[in-house]
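Dear colleague,

Following up on Tuesday's group meeting, I ran the structure prediction for the four-component complex that the binding team flagged. I've pasted the input sequences exactly as they went in, so you can double-check that nothing got truncated or mislabelled along the way. The structure tokens for the whole assembly follow below. Feel free to forward this to whoever is handling the docking comparison.

Inputs:
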Amino acid sequence: MPRLSMLMDQTSYELGDVLTRGGLDPDLSNKLVEMPQKIIDIDPRRPFRDAGVERDEVIFVARGLLSKFRTDASGRRQIVALRFAGEGILPRRGEADYGLQAIVPTRLHVGKASDFDPIVEENPALQRYFIRLIQRETAIGYEWLVNCGRRDSTARVAHLLCETAERMGIRNGSGVLTNPFTQQQIADITGQTSVNVNRVFADLERQGLIARKGREVEFVDWEELRRLASFQRDYLRAG
Amino acid sequence: MPRLSMLMDQTSYELGDVLTRGGLDPDLSNKLVEMPQKIIDIDPRRPFRDAGVERDEVIFVARGLLSKFRTDASGRRQIVALRFAGEGILPRRGEADYGLQAIVPTRLHVGKASDFDPIVEENPALQRYFIRLIQRETAIGYEWLVNCGRRDSTARVAHLLCETAERMGIRNGSGVLTNPFTQQQIADITGQTSVNVNRVFADLERQGLIARKGREVEFVDWEELRRLASFQRDYLRAG
DNA sequence: CGGTTGTTTGAACTGATTCAATCTGTGTGG
DNA sequence: CCACACAGATTGAATCAGTTCAAACAACCG
């Protein structure tokens, strides 16, 4: 067996694995993994797709973390959504109004809409799966809106920490979160400046809610952090 | 013909009409209108559906304006989405995390998911229609996130005015917008206080961008208002 | 080692909130 | 037709959360 093919098998296995762990039936996950697709590794901070371009492709995140972002007229950036491993971006007719950029080194599987659409059309179970995913993403979007619109800067950062921990598989704040974000990126998600994010972090640590070692965040008082952020994990369940 | 039935025909026609005007094929629109459904008139400001309740129903707005809102732990309210006439809310498996409330007197058509789902399943064209609608709603959500996260209070209010005008069928600011919102509701959408919304309105008027007579808003300088809000109408196109 | 990226801190500033009072328009009952 | 109630709009003054600007510091990497 040639090496490249072996590599393909391994990497396909990786995506199939995160998809099933995300609750997708292994048979259905296989259908997606067997679809023709390019495997692309991208670096953080380097634009991967720009806004204003047709996006007739499916993207799955096999590992790493991908962000959707918009840039305002005045150049200020807002991250509007995140895709963790196992999550993806569905094809879109017409220009997308957001760009894509990795937060950490990320591996993507990129397939054509023309290959993807028929597979979904043939499998009602897949349809239901994606509908539930979309509803989950919508719920997360609403949560972010509440975050930016109605919570103070401390709660916003705390909420993002809770959500990130949860989405990265840390249950009830047990263990240590390897925070994938720079403070600038947290600012771009929570609608603040990096300077203030820094102060909030220092505050949270001073209050004994978290402890930091470099990028590692330990949840010293998860319950209190949750309360402060008014974080209810329910919205992260799919459908 | 008994009167009630005549009334039903008229009101059904009303929904069919707004759906086709929204770009849905008349045949498909008929399929939706013929589905068993209750017609409900609701008053503004009175809660219609609460958060945390299963929502296995389709809702279409025949006339008026409906809002999805969330209430934070501290009691502050954030409106996370709007549904104008012709728009709707798809059934959702599991509890919804938002409540529903009308902004103005509103007529809804409420159908059961068990009636709705098969109709959509049988009609791929309807499926595509709803997918495009969902993508549009997502794009609007992203825009609101940029609004709350990255624009100053003036731009936020100006942007909402532009979007509302556009969604209510006022092209390029020609004519007069009967602003459906109270200043408190605008605050709940844009993440501010009603006091500040009031000041922003006064500012916009003083700058000669709008003129007000009660709830009526006239766009005196649409182009400048658009620029100030960095409003690009593209995101409102469906798919 | 120098270059780059990210974090931390301080001081001055400002946009928006908060609290409170007043004003305006509309609908209701006498 | 007036008196009254009520919701919403408007205004002022004090306060504060978060920004801005600027500089220093730390970590990483080829």
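The helical segments of chain B are 3-21, 26-33, 113-122, 124-150, 153-167, 183-190, 194-206, 222-229.

Cheers,
M.
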